[in-house]
Amino acid sequence: MANNFDSSLFEKEDKGHACALFEQVETLFGVDSNHFFKHVLNERLAQISEQDSSLRYKNIATKLQSPYYFVNVNYPLKDEPQQWHDFEQRALNLFDNWAQAWCAFNIWKIKSKYQNQPRRLELDSLPKLTQNEEDFVDSVIDNIENHAELYYTLHSGYAMELPDAVMLINLATFVSEQQWFEMLYEIEVSAHGSHFILAQLVSDLSFPVIVSTAKVNHHKEADNWLYFSPFFQTSCWTLLNQVEMQRQLVNLDLLCSDIEISDTSSAKFENALWQNIAVQEKCCEIVRLTVSGNQSQKIFSLYLSQKRLMAQLEKLCFQVAFVVIEQPLMIQYYQSLTNGAYLKMSYCHVSDSGFATYKGLWFIKPLSQALSECSYRNYKVSTITQLKQHRHQGQELQYA
């Protein structure tokens, strides 16, 4: 198979060394291989936080850029076998850090499942994508773990079952490209539950090509929502728009007008707000929104995925979606709207990207209406200033 699918993870000459490393790890640890990667990473992160308390609330990528990490990793972990340190050293010859190696291990495991796939199903090169909206299909699929149909992605030449395809996309975009290593701890979530899928139908291919995915978390799963997880409810988050947030929810009959909600912290406000929402089944959480491809393809797919996703959520009778966004192009577009389609609830600088991460709400009906009336050209006009500004500043835009 052509190596262009693997270029983002391995240099050509390193691929064999990486595979040899992963095979040895899997032989030694078997089903506990991910636990091994997790344990080593946790130990290194604990060392860093102990040596530099200012990094305690930063994301994993920021911690792994600390000089403390590169000093500590020269020495074996206390009370652990020397072989573990040998694995670390070999991994650092191939990857930037241990978390990247963990990500690559999971990608290798997924692709290994398809090594014996009939050659006629494999792609030798990346499929050619268009920017014609009519070429794309979308759906929200429940319980994707039971979905056996095959799809192509832009991250492998193999045709994969949907759970593997979505997990691979999450690993390749969020984790490998954008360095949200936190996702590695719950990567199996990507292969279960309800997911939005946007795919292009290519005339000479046997299966659709997925260009965007998102996970739809229902209200019954709120205890496990990313929105309310400890990492996103620390004291570092600054509360925004409390009064307007309550007003809009009251107007939707989701909140009683006489409710008093504590705003002493963002965590207390967000939790109390959720507990007081009268019709929680009208709410969902959207997480792991990904787009794949080159820069031009990603911008188009980001536009179209939001447009199609809002239409799907409206059809499913959702009124509000809880979202966590670091994507500047999305925030810039929402700021261009005047119909109350999106409100920020809190923000924090959890990484060194230069961009704040925002927690907020999509108000489905007005956002769906705005996007349905928006052409791709108009969408680009609404966001291009932001793109040029960050290019000028030398900042890297996040697309997933």
Task: Kindly list the characteristics that best describe this protein.
400 residues, alpha+beta, Aminopeptidase, 2 domains, eight-stranded mixed β-sheet, two-stranded antiparallel sheet, 14% strand, globular
Q: What do these coordinates show?
A:
- This protein is α+β, with helices and mostly antiparallel strands and 400 residues long.
- The protein folds into 2 domains: 3-112, no CATH class; 119-392, Aminopeptidase, CATH 3.40.630.30.
- The protein contains 13 helices and 10 strands.
- It is globular, with a radius of gyration of 22 Å.
Number of strands: 10
Span between termini: 26 Å
Rounded radius of gyration (Å): 22 Å
Largest sheet: 8 strands, mixed
Secondary-structure-based class equals alpha+beta
- The level of helicity is 40-55%
Shape: globular
Beta-strand proportion = 5-15%
Structural domain count:
2
Write the layout of secondary structure elements.
Blueprint: H1 15-29, H2 33-51, H3 60-64, H4 67-72, H5 82-92, H6 98-112, E1 136-141, E2 150-151, E3 160-161, H7 162-177, E4 194-200, E5 209-218, E6 238-239, H8 242-251, H9 266-276, E7 283-291, H10 295-315, E8 320-325, H11 328-335, E9 342-348, E10 357-363, H12 364-372, H13 376-392
Parallel strand pairs: 7-8
Antiparallel strand pairs: 1-4, 2-3, 4-5, 5-7, 6-9, 8-10, 9-10
